[in-house]
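Protein modeling request. Please complete all fields; requests missing the sequence field cannot be processed.
Requester role: graduate student
Desired output: 3D structure, token encoding
Chains: 1
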Amino acid sequence: MAKRTKTSDATIKPMRVLILYRPMSEHAAKAEDFVNGYVKHYPKHPIEALNIDSREGSDLAQLYGIVSHPAVIIIGTDGSAIEVWQGEQLPDISEVNYYFRLA
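Delivered output (103 residues):
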């Protein structure tokens, strides 16, 4: 079950969607399928996929309090996390895109 955390004011407009995951792990295929599905359905709202073990991925995981992967983070224009999902059960892509429809 994914751990979902609402961490910021919903009035902040989303700037980017980020997925942190570990390539070559048991959850890698699920994370990559999520990214491919998101890009296919919502090409105007890019998603960034980062290795959680890379320097940038590790820094972002620490910044946003990520303790399990994969993790999907919606980041607002002010740099704060608007919504965070952690764990093997990823959100539905339409649920992630919902935040862009509010913008």
